[in-house]
Amino acid sequence: MRTEIEEIKSQPRIFQLMKCTACSNPLDLPAVHFLCMHSFHHRCLGENEKECPMCAPGNRTILEIKRSQEQNANRHDQFSKQLESSEDGFSVVADYFGRNVFSKIVLLDSSTMNLSSGGQRR
Fold first, then answer.
1. pTM (2 d.p.)
2. Segment (H or E) for 77
3. Hey, which of 64, 78, 87, 108 has its CA 20 to 30 A from 34?
């Protein structure tokens, strides 16, 4: 996928589809081409011309999964319970990494940290 993204950024995309993905009639102008390589008559898209109607359901599913994972990323108590109750803690951590829960890295600057617990700034 990273290779494909780099290709989209750096190389032209050639659209050679001859038929509308929706109605299967030969394409004529105005036509809309998506980067997923689906092409449509403008009239076949209707109101939905910002995303490919063929790929949109799958994309929405992926976005919902990602949103759910992001919401669960802050559930440290749930992660700790799973880790403590598991016979193999490595599999729990691997599962969380596989679901991309640990993808966000937050860097703390010493000037923004609360040092009221007796710490000193240098």
1. 0.52
2. helix 76-85
3. 64
Q: Which residues contact 34 (CB under 8 A, 6 or more apart)?
A: 40, 51, 52, 55
Tell me if residue 63 falls in helix, strand or coil: helix
Long-range contacts of 72-80 (CB under 8 A, 24+ apart): 72/101, 73/101, 73/102, 73/104
Identify which of 59, 36, 61, 56 has the alpha carbon closest to the alpha carbon of residue 46: 56
Give me the domains of the chain, ranges plus CATH numbers. Answer: 1-56 (3.30.40), 65-106 (no CATH)
Going by C-alpha positions, the residue among 1, 27, 7 that lies closest to residue 38 is 27
